Amino acid sequence: MGKTYWLLSSTEENFRATRDLDFSLQGVDTRQRRKAVRMAEDDRMIFYISNRQAFAASTTLTSNHFEDHERIWKTHRESEDFPHRVKMRADVVVEEEKWVDARQIGPRLEYVRKWPPEMWPLALVGTLHIIPQRDFTMLEGELKRVVADKPVRRRGRGRRGRRGRRNRGAPGQRASAASRE
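Predicted structure:
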């Protein structure tokens, strides 16, 4: 069987718990058991932060599904401990302030086309989704693009003078004190 491409919908708090584990482990809730048992080594996963409507990371699974009941992630249900787990490694992780805005890219996903365009986020309700490879590739490409974008560093003095003040006179002329006030 070939690779499966997963989209994991997570809260910010649970994403941070996974990040604190260096993306070495991910668990899903008992409601997702039927899908979770299909998770296998070399499958790929994209993280969607539901309360921020943003994409934040991609990983590669390094194990098949297994069960463990150690409490790591949080939910509103007291008995839930996200027992269906896989080991993984991070591929692309975006800093929080640069997460990819799902409102901009989500409507283009093939996976959400069964919903009316204005209601596409409903397609991502629930924790675990199997998405088309094309959607995964496009989302991971956006994550890589954001990670590769480095702040542009200005060279030279640009529009400012030697001491960081703007030149307000004609080129080559210094502005008078009266013209600066």
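Summary: Residues 76 and 155 are 52 Å apart (CA to CA).
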